[in-house]
Design brief:
Length: 108
Amino acid sequence: MKKQDATVGEQVGSQRFSVNVPHKFSIHNFKVLTFCDHCGSLLWGLLRQGLQCKVCKVNVHRRCESNVAPTCGVDARRIATVLSDLGLTPDKISNSAQRRKKVWTTWL
């Protein structure tokens, strides 16, 4: 494989699995009752109730904007489905992390 082809492959691979994509929030006027996708509270008011991402349509309070993970465009439900199909569930992941921690503490 040529050096240029390897570089292109690395760039594509790194973009494919990138979840550090910031949201593009703008002030939004919601016409129906809408809840914050971060904290779950109602976005209240008559006008300019909150922010909405222009790309993935995530709705948040202005106060929650700084706490939202930079995962714009990432389909978390699909990722969870794929991981569960592979047999990786949150309890198994946390158990393996605890086992690794126990191994390290016994070495020390």
